[in-house]
Design a protein that fits this description.
The chain contains eleven helices and eleven strands. By secondary structure, it is α/β, with parallel strands linked by helices. Helix 2 crosses helix 9. The longest helix is centred in the N-terminal third of the chain and has 36 residues. The radius of gyration is 28 Å and the shape is globular.
Length: about 325
């Protein structure tokens, strides 16, 4: 009898303990999701990767936005420059980061829409990145010549180049500026020689020194245009630039198909929760719509945008397709 009571007691205790621990596990299962769902974004510092060296348009835009995001989100937004390989190194870092809203990408148009046609990438630009907002149009690009070049219009430059086949060269500091020269050569039937440089900074230095006759550049070259060291022959945009309103567009100059957009956009790793993307977009749109930021962008020849993720995705899709057609038409290649 005592043995039976002992067994019953052990079994009773065992059942009690089983129910007790099962209850704890159930409670933990209920509490854990609630804790995750209740987490307020952001709860820790955010890094904003720029796939360019400090001082470039995307870097300047990133630092403006990062400071204002810090004020709005109450968390530090640290700008991290990861230059190299036409933006591939920095973009790859973001594409392979956790999709949790704590790694952002501020990148230029060419790295996102042209580079995919030129290199075998370690990521898929469309599938591995999620657009947040096109932040700004970063200024018009211009066809520039050294002041010593005897051409004051696009047509005069074409005539000069045709009179000296293969003798007139142009600077190619990036794939985009290189391709712009190739587009111009193809559209005008001229024989121009590309001289490559490691970036638009060295390209501009070479143009000022007269090492090359022509190059495509934007805002950094404007002081030299105003001083007379360089001459702007045409704007590579659909309409004239407000910073140099007297300079005609390439279309107005009689050359079709030589237009390049220049913008900076904010993205996150694909898979980032929609509510986080929407929160970031709303903050960015508010930031770039402020009078302070608009004024600072205008001083640099840029224009604030702040559109939606869907609108930004449509811009990227259209430009990726357009660059594909241009690269194919010019048979443009780079060293892998």
């Amino acid at each position: 009898m005592m043995a039976i009571m002992a067994v019953l007691t052990i079994e009773s205790v065992g059942r009690f303990l089983s129910r007790f621990f099962l209850g704890l596990l159930t409670l933990a299962g209920c509490v854990a999701p609630a804790a995750v769902q209740g987490e307020v974004y952001p709860s820790k510092p955010i890094r904003m990767v720029v796939p360019q060296p400090p001082g470039g348009p995307s870097d300047v835009m990133a630092r403006l936005v990062a400071q204002k995001l810090f004020e709005a989100l109450k968390q530090p937004v640290v700008v991290e420059n990861r230059p190299g390989a036409n933006g591939i190194i920095g973009i790859d870092v973001v594409a392979k980061s956790p999709p949790n809203g704590y790694t952002l990408l501020m990148a230029p148009a060419s790295s996102l829409t042209l580079v995919p046609h030129l290199y075998k990438l370690p990521y898929d630009t469309v599938k591995d990145l999620a657009p947040v907002s096109l932040v700004s149009h970063t200024g018009t690009l211009f066809m520039l010549v050294n002041s010593s070049v005897p051409a004051r219009s696009v047509q005069e430059f074409i005539d000069l180049a045709k009179s000296k086949p293969g003798e007139i060269n142009f600077g190619a500091g990036t794939s985009a500026t290189h391709l712009a020269g190739e587009m111009f050569r193809l559209a005008t039937g001229t024989q121009l020689t590309a001289i490559t440089y490691k970036g638009t900074g060295p390209q501009l230095t070479a143009l000022l020194a007269g090492e090359v006759s022509m190059a495509v550049d934007g805002f950094p070259a404007l002081p030299h245009v105003r001083s007379g060291k360089l001459r702007a022959l045409a704007a590579l945009s659909p309409r004239r630039s407000p910073v140099l309103p007297d300079v005609p567009t390439m279309r107005e100059s009689g050359v079709q198909g030589v237009e390049i957009g220049s913008w900076t956009g904010l993205l996150t790793p694909a898979g980032t929760p929609k509510d986080i993307i929407n929160r970031l977009q709303q903050e960015v749109a508010r930031i770039v719509a402020s009078a302070e930021i608009k004024e600072r962008l205008a001083a640099a020849g840029s224009e604030a945008v702040g559109n939606t993720p869907e609108q930004f995705a449509a811009v990227m899709e259209a430009e990726i397709a357009a660059w594909g057609r241009v690269v194919k038409a010019t048979n443009f290649k780079v060293d892998q």
